[in-house]
Amino acid sequence: MALDMFTLAIAAFLFVVAALVVLFIVFRLLKNIMKFFIALLANSIVGLVFVFILSLVGVKVPLTLPYLISIALFGLGGLGTILILMFTGMLKP
Questions:
Q1: CA angle, corner 46, sides to 74 and 29, nearest 5?
Q2: Pair 51, 23: CB distance under 8 Å
Q3: Structural domain boundaries of the chain?
Q4: Which residue among 5, 24, 55, 87 is least enclosed by CB atoms within 10 Å?
Q5: Distance between CA 51 and CA 42 in Å, rounded?
């Protein structure tokens, strides 16, 4: 069964439109994912810088894996929570 040129042109046009829609959706998803990871990286760096600054001031935050994961994921919020728990005695250093 042979297709005429008009049918082939419509099929090619629909294929290009569908491909552009898929590329647009993928680009938007990747853009949001990259924005999330950049914010997570900035949060981690700020949290770890403040751990260093606190060690210079004299406040010793234990650098064990659970503490570092908390600070790396939540940044200043994680560090603040650890400090509050340490100062209230709920968390042993």
A1: 60
A2: no
A3: 5-87
A4: 5
A5: 14
State both tokens at 22. 């898929």
Task: Residue count of the chain, please give it.
Answer: 93
Tokens of 72: 């790396």
- Residues 64-89: pLDDT tens digits? 998 989 998 888 999 999 999 999 98
- The pLDDT assigned to 1 comes to 53
* Token pair listed for 54: 């606190």
